[in-house]
């Protein structure tokens, strides 16, 4: 081993008053004297890395430029609280804790929360419906987020093919031949071996995979645009079929109760920082993690193939140097590549490829109403909205909060969190993309697009007269001007992106990567990938340190036995240059 040694005595030292069932045995209760680790970035990836390392006796210092939680945090709307109330809660954009997440729920269970035997994980509550909202006077669809008991107890391929076709045809009123095509394409992906997924579907666009050419607008809007712009946060035209297909597969398995942590769609029962981020910070401090909030890393100094130090800037603008035994770069990729200097890129060529990863905007607008606005008990997807809007009415999921009594000036009774997924498409009111509009114009445009969907059938589902205030993600600056910027861009995944994603282990012996752009079992830019990648980074660090501590568990994607034989056959077909078996059968 070329790294600093790590003895068993160091790992076990400081074992103290942990919470039973919420942490590893032998958790350190105070600042450890073990090897020093500098973690740069305080989002899900950085906090997960700090959590896993602190439990294993490392001396961790976390540096975060703005606020803990990263894109997943909630934040106060400054100056809105009155008469002892909290400021109104806002956020970068709402989040979903999908049932197919496995690593993140494990972390949530290990964060103590008063009154919860299962820690923060007990703050997750199911969202039971999805509102698929159409414009033009068409009736909206409320899709349940759970299947009736006994439906599809077996994943027999022929049965599943017909059931998917029937569900698509009846729920979305698609022509029978289009429903059949979609069902067949899903069977192709479900039965594809891993080699085909990475060798063929990773290089095939999602529209081409779904044979979208010549299909109806509904087919394209629901099954082509929807998953890529909402679930996968990427452009439709060049989105990888591997990414979108994987999301559909995970959704299906979760609905069928296969390998899931819980219901498909879950949200927190309090604003995110109250339910998760603040308790997490407190727990990490109890574990001995030190925080440097307001500090930013500006350069990583390479000497003889290792990171010798990091140049950082403190909250007062002073520049200093940080030295540690190990470094975890948990910055989002759009920030990380700014500190990957030429020496570092030369030391590890995979970073040069990772620096080319594409990002795009996705950000939220909060709407506060003076009355409850229960549009649906879950998320809403506005199918025909040019900006690919989604939303959730949040206060209805916060039973322990009397919204007007606890937040703001007492006039707001609910908050509808809206995510704008497409910032480059022209809108319906001003005819320009969101990036070219002022915040006030963005508000008016979003309201216009919501009206077209919710108030198009003769009922005023969304009453704008009850809107009392609003708040746009503060990471957006310069809107309406020549150089708009977004401090929190998301990784997008056009074809071939998997081969640009780096591993958590780098060629630099004391540098490790964590973030939703790093290779992880779930190939998507999401909280689960951020958490999994941090666990992979910690395990790589433990290997380099020669640590005897138990490795962090990284759950592999659940595999269903009904498809394993078909995948084995497909591997043979793939190696022989033949298509997947279902790719040559006519749709049923």
Q: Could you say which overall geometry the principal axes of the C-alpha atoms support?
A: globular
Mean pLDDT across the residues is 90
Number of strands: 23
| Major sheet summary line | 7 strands, mixed
The portion of residues assigned to helices is: 25-40%
Distance between the termini: 58 Å
Number of helical segments with 4 or more residues: 17
Structural class: alpha+beta
Please list the strands of the largest sheet in the order they lie side by side.
7-6-16-17-18-15-19
* Cα Rg: 24 Å
What is the count of distinct domains?
A: 3
Tell me the fraction of residues in β-strands, as a range.
Answer: 15-25%
Low-confidence stretches: 1-23, 25-29
InterPro entries: Amino_oxidase (IPR002937), FAD/NAD-bd_sf (IPR036188), TAT_signal (IPR006311), Zeta_carotene_desat/Oxidored (IPR050464)
GO molecular function, one term: oxidoreductase activity
Pfam family, one: Amino_oxidase
Domain Amine oxidase: 44-542
What are the key terms here?
588 residues; alpha+beta; FAD/NAD(P)-binding domain; 7-stranded mixed sheet; 5-stranded parallel sheet
Description:
The chain has 17 helices and 23 strands. It has helices spanning 8-12, 44-55, 103-109, 157-172, 176-190, 194-199, 206-209, 217-231, 241-255, 272-286, 333-336, 342-347, 349-354, 403-406, 439-454, 527-545, 561-575; strands at 36-40, 59-64, 74-76, 89-91, 124-126, 129-133, 141-144, 266-268, 290-293, 296-303, 306-313, 319-322, 326-329, 359-360, 363-369, 378-382, 390-393, 414-420, 467-472, 476-477, 485-486, 490-491, 511-513. The chain is α+β, with helices and mostly antiparallel strands and 588 residues long. The chain has a seven-stranded mixed β-sheet with strand order 7-6-16-17-18-15-19, with helices on one face. It has three domains: 8-66 and 294-357 and 490-545, 3-Layer(bba) Sandwich (FAD/NAD(P)-binding domain), CATH 3.50.50; 72-127 and 265-271 and 362-486; 153-254 and 567-583, no CATH class.
